[in-house]
Amino acid sequence: MRQTHNTVVSPQKAPSAGRSWSDSAMLVITFVRSRWGYRFRTRQQLKRFQDRRWRRFARTSMPRANYYVELTHHHGSLPIISKPDVRRNFAGMNTRSVTLEHALEVARTAERNRDFSPTIGNDLTVGLSSGTSGTQGAFLVSSREQALWAGTILARVLSSDSLRRLLTPWAEPVRISFFLRANSNLYESVASRRVSFEFCDLLEPIDAHIEALNRSRPNIIVAPASVLKRLADAQGEGRLRVRPNQVVSVAEVLEPADAELMFGVWGAPVSQVYQATEGLLAVTCSQGTLHMCEERVIVEPEWLDPERTRFHPVITDLQRTTQLIVRYRLDDVLRVREGEPCPCGSVALALAGVEGRADEVVQWPSTSGGSAVTVFPDVLRRTMSLAGRHFDDWRYEQETAEQTPSQEVQSASTVIRLLNADRAAEDAVQAELTNLANTLLAQPPRLIFAPWVEPQPGAKLRRITRLQPVSGEAGASPVGEHTA
Q1: Is 232 inside a domain boundary?
Q2: Using CA atoms, how far apart are residues 484 and 251, in angstroms rounded to an integer?
Q3: How many domains does the chain have?
């Protein structure tokens, strides 16, 4: 495969004068199209739209990335890639020939200094993945792509009330408080004269954020589900006194019980944004359904069950023209929404939820001695919630899974950590997991109850962890980040 020398680049500060006229125009055009355009009546119409965009993308973007120069541009014939492939071929998969080493150096320096404005060249923002799969990755976004992202996210997320405030010149700007581990020029790109953007660093104590929120009184709060839950608890205790019009969950799986708690204290439904390092993937519609953003992303399901209810997505981002994301396999487990079409009228793929990652799919021994029984994250979460009145939070850690050559799981020890629990809580968890095992014709796991350990500041909440992956599992693969 043909390769060229990598361009030597140095980090620079992002231009302080704001976005260029062309980027501003791109943001507005994208906002209008994403809010009021893309009204596909059928899946066939959407597919024809994707085909046109793919042909243009293959013609204009792929020849500028060394990795793809000599490959076919027929979409279905291109290789499916994963995180190790991207790490090995990072410079060849972006159109600026930026090396992974240099991108990581710039991004890690920004993380250490908590200054996220430096860019590569004059316009290339670098960000880090969360590294939850064991190795950190990096992503590259140009100023034009930032404008596309900002226009799309504002159009898809803002409620009618927030949009009216945004478009009313004499009204106060829309105030957004955004909680994440790291800021980015990408996230700051939503800021303007009509949008006030406040980054809330997750490495800072939550009490400091509560004081800041009481002062700023945001209209929209965007945060990981675990942070939203802590803020909702603070609101219920009277320490937090805000009335957001919108609450948006990002970066973590949103539990239904937590969503109900948040709605109860704020009176605003919780919407979700599903975004990975590899791009913006899905956003909640006005009816509360999570739809894949298929006007910008081609989604190929790799089904995990015969009923075709759960899948790993293989994605191609048609708007990323700097770091190309072409047939990239995520190991997130997505569950398809079943039943009647969504009342919003969108024909884009509707999800019942983002259940988690492949390493959150646990396996229990079968009572018949045959192949292991797969337990999906959503099933395990619902079971733990049945015992939830006995404790405040939980974690499930399957530490070992030994297999014979026939792929039969022989033994597996599971550590359960419960917050504010007693012996009755342990008995309730044991009973519910045993009931689930009996239903699935599986042997219940051997449980070890261990003390609760508080997560590190800024770390993603992962209630289910399979620390040693079971060999031979279909569909398992490395993963990118799940952030906003």
Answers
A1: no
A2: 6
A3: 2
